[in-house]
Design a protein that fits this description.
This protein is an all-alpha fold. It has a single domain, classed as MetI-like fold, CATH 1.10.3720.10. Helix 3 packs across helix 5, helix 5 crosses helix 6 and helix 9 runs antiparallel to helix 10. The longest helix is centred in the middle third of the chain and has 37 residues. The termini are far apart. The relative contact order is 0.15.
């Protein structure tokens, strides 16, 4: 118990003392996860809207595939990206392996199915509600699609928060393609795993506290936005 209390005290000192090593790791985690979510949003939100709005051959297969990939094992995603970026892989010439870019790629691969599948569900519900209205107003395909995305913005932000939470909690895939290199590709989850195995409990605890606070904030924000979205739908009804 004394060892734990001492480690916890040192962890707090690292946090409030703005320890450069700890906050560099936190910064790397936020940059990688944030960039992955932005890329997934740029690709996934329009794709989810198209899947919700327009029937076309093969749509069911794509939807089923996205739903299945929401449970993609991270280590499998890491292995796939590793093979693509390794020296003998098709993208090996770019030297991206064991860089933050590789970590963004693998986290985007994990977040993208979540964004596509959940945004499709959100927008499909709105399309069922507003299909006749948008058609009667003469809204074209792209205008109606944009209107649905704007109206679903609170729900879509919640979707992106879910993706951000998945990215922040990831460890296996990031370690495979990033290498957990100090000062370069070390994130909170990989650093916690490493420092715990080394016995450096203060740094691991400090990072764990930050990670828990971030997860808590993300969940609170998602809950608040979800409640606002439900109230808005209730008022329109």
């Amino acid at each position: 118990m004394n060892d734990f209390s001492e480690a916890f005290s040192v962890a707090l000192a690292l946090l409030f003392g703005l320890d450069p090593v700890l906050w560099q790791i936190v910064s790397m985690s936020l940059r990688v996860a944030g960039t992955a979510v932005v890329v997934a949003a740029v690709i996934g939100l329009p794709l989810g809207a198209v899947l919700a709005r327009y029937p076309f051959p093969g749509r069911g297969v794509i939807v089923s595939g996205c739903n299945a990939l929401m449970g993609l094992p991270p280590v499998v995603a890491g292995l796939v990206v590793y093979l693509l970026l390794s020296r003998s892989g098709p993208l090996g010439q770019y030297g991206l392996l064991f860089t933050p870019t590789a970590m963004v790629v693998v986290q985007t691969l994990l977040v993208l199915p979540i964004v596509v599948a959940l945004s499709r569900q959100v927008i499909a519900g709105l399309w069922q509600e507003y299909a006749e209205l948008l058609t009667s107003l003469g809204a074209g395909p792209w205008r109606s699609l944009w209107a649905l995305i704007v109206d679903a913005r609170l729900g879509l932000v919640t979707v992106l928060l879910a993706g951000f939470g998945r990215a922040m909690a990831e460890v296996g895939a990031v370690m495979i393609v990033g290498g957990n290199i100090a000062g370069h590709t070390r994130t909170m989850t990989t650093a916690i795993a490493l420092e715990t195995s080394r016995g450096d409990l203060p740094l691991a605890l400090g990072l764990g506290i930050v990670l828990l606070l971030l997860v808590l904030l993300v969940n609170l924000a998602a809950t608040w936005l979800g409640e606002r979205s439900r109230r808005a739908l209730g008022e329109r009804a």
